[in-house]
């Protein structure tokens, strides 16, 4: 009986130790059980502990997979910026201090990225542009020093492009806002004539699908919810856009709210004026585009053909190539496409807002 009791005590200690490792409250083996029953109960407890450990490991793996999926959902540009900022935070922050006005440009463009992270993205894009232009030079079999120079120009071009990218985004946003303005004004006017307040009407536009202008009205609502007055929120909208048409609308709304008046009728009138102005600009644009289209066809088709014919004729007369093959390739692959691209930019810029 003494030996059996000692064996029982040993198994009890082993069971208690196993349960402590499993970080569970100690569950003692019931007394007055035979040794076989206690062994079976101990085995069952050990199986439960192993099962709990396995479940905990599966939960950790699921959490890791979920975290990885969230990381992959981030845009590549944001992940690239975070990686560069992580390893080169010192140079990035030093460069950030020297770039004045970048934070305001990001705010106007509604690019929701910190200034440091955007500067890191600028560096990353510049590096990719440098590598790309260097490889282009190598593929064209240009001298190594020319390829290195192309890589340097690619880095500078990529950096300047990214620095001006928020301004480009802001200008495009202004264009989109002005295009959608007549529809939004009619939306506001119809709600106001139905007895809805101006703040509720702005919230309705923010919740609608008018594109960029809905985003801007959402910012107005957010400013008012954060403590800004109605006048301050509209003034910030006017400052972000820096547009004459937007300024006209904001001033008319603020004047009607302050001094009273038929605001719905005013907004209907503004919507008609903007629509008429747009139609007149569209007529002028169609007339202008005819001449620009002829110039574009001449640059992209006629001039390259004339150049090749002239070079062949001059080479036959001189019995040698007048222009090296690499130089001709650069002109045909980069020179004329660049001129055609500039023409497209000019045509796009002259498009009426």
Topology:
Elements (H helix, E strand, L loop, with lengths): L1 H20 L13 H39 L2 H12 L1 H10 L3 H7 L6 H25 L4 H50 L4 H10 L4 H14 L4 H12 L2 H16 L3 H56 L6 H25 L4
Helix pairs in contact: 1-2, 3-6, 4-6, 5-7, 6-7, 7-8, 7-12, 8-9, 9-10, 10-11, 11-12, 12-13
**Percentage beta strand:** under 5%
> What is the number of helical segments per DSSP (H or I, 4+ residues)?
13
Using DSSP, what is the number of strands? 0
Cα distance, first to last residue? Answer: 101 Å
Rg from C-alpha positions?
Answer: 35 Å
SSE sequence, one letter per element: HHHHHHHHHHHHH
Q: Please state the structural category.
A: mainly alpha
Describe the sheet with the most strands.
none
Roughly what percent helix? over 70%
* Low-confidence parts: 17-26
User: How would you describe the oligomerization state of the chains in this entry?
Assistant: single chain
Q: pLDDT average, as an integer? A: 82
Shape: flat
């Amino acid at each position: 009986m003494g030996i059996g009791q000692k064996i029982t005590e040993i198994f009890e200690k082993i069971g208690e130790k196993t349960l402590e490792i499993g970080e569970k409250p100690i569950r003692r083996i019931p007394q007055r059980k035979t040794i076989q029953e206690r062994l079976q109960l101990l085995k069952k407890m050990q199986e439960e502990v192993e099962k709990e450990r396995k479940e905990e490991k599966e939960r950790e793996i699921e959490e890791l997979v979920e975290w990885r999926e969230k990381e992959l959902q981030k845009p590549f540009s944001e992940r690239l910026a975070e990686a560069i900022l992580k390893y080169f935070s010192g140079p990035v922050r030093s460069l950030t201090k020297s770039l004045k006005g970048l934070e305001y440009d990001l705010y106007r463009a509604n690019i929701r990225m910190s200034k440091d992270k955007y500067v890191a993205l600028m560096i990353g894009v510049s590096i990719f542009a440098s590598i790309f232009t260097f490889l282009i030079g190598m593929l064209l079999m240009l001298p190594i020093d020319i390829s290195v120079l192309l890589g340097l120009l690619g880095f500078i071009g990529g950096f300047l492009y990214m620095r001006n990218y928020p301004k480009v985004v802001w200008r495009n946003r202004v264009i989109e806002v002005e295009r959608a303005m007549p529809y939004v004004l009619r939306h506001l006017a119809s709600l106001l004539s139905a007895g809805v307040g101006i703040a509720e009407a702005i919230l309705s536009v923010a919740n609608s699908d008018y594109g960029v202008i809905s985003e801007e009205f959402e910012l107005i609502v957010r400013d008012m919810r954060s403590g800004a007055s109605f006048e301050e929120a509209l003034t910030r909208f006017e400052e972000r856009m820096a547009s004459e048409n937007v300024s006209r609308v904001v001033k008319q709304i603020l004047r009607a709210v302050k001094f009273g008046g038929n605001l719905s009728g005013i907004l209907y009138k503004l919507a008609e004026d903007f629509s008429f102005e747009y139609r007149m600009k569209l007529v002028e644009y169609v007339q202008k585009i005819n001449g620009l289209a002829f110039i574009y066809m001449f640059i992209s088709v006629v001039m390259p053909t004339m150049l090749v014919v002239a070079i062949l004729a001059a080479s036959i007369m001189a019995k040698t190539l007048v222009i090296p093959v690499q130089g001709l390739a650069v002109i045909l692959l980069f020179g004329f496409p660049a001129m055609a691209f500039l023409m497209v930019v000019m045509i796009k810029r002259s498009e009426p807002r």
